[in-house]
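re: that chain from earlier
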Amino acid sequence: MKNFIPINRKLFNHFLWSERRKFSRFEAWLDLIQLVSYTDDNKQLINGILCQWNRGQYPISTSFLMKRWKWTEKPTRNFLKILQNDEMISLKKGVKWSMLTVCKYESYNKTGQLEVNQRSIKGQSKVNQRSTIKESKEVKESKEGEDNDSSSDSIFNIFDLQLKYLKNKRLISAVISNPKNNFMNEQHLEQQMGKFINELQERNEIMKKESDFNSHFRNWNRKQKSSSAVSQQGIKLNASNPNKK
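^ sequence. v structure.
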């Protein structure tokens, strides 16, 4: 394709992108482009309200963007206004969220790639469903201070769940203090949470129960820890048995 630099969505899992920082305006714009959906006919319940969106769209809130970009409210609203005035985006306000549409989305993501993406998503959806059912059965021992109130039976946007999780200081303290989780500090936990959210986006798993989200994140992080431990063990074995000349 002419005038294009193909970028794999895994770029947004890279440690440089996931680094905790205040976004520039260009980074915030790029984040919106990768955030909106590249498929049509998306439909989910968000806080009990049916939300539908299509290709090039995504439901957002100001607080959600503030947390992602490490901005305050006024700069966030001003930036969205700039994009609207330049006809780069449009916003349709709702009760709990606003529907963001990236104008001329086809100029950023060609339709020719859509069929490939859809086939990949359909193939992954069945695997993801089986994986989610298995994980929900394995993770019923949630004893790290998770608040299992009546709201845990409702389904929420993963970004709202991310905000709620990171604001729960009692939960974060309990998670960090558990040596099984291998979190060095709160900043390390936030970095891992960012990587976890990006993986959920790639698999199109943007709606979860609160209890499932918390336990899924804990298990995902422990799997990352196990993989890292295996790699480190291999390095130590190689170091202890150097080639003799």
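The chain is about 50% helix and 10% strand.
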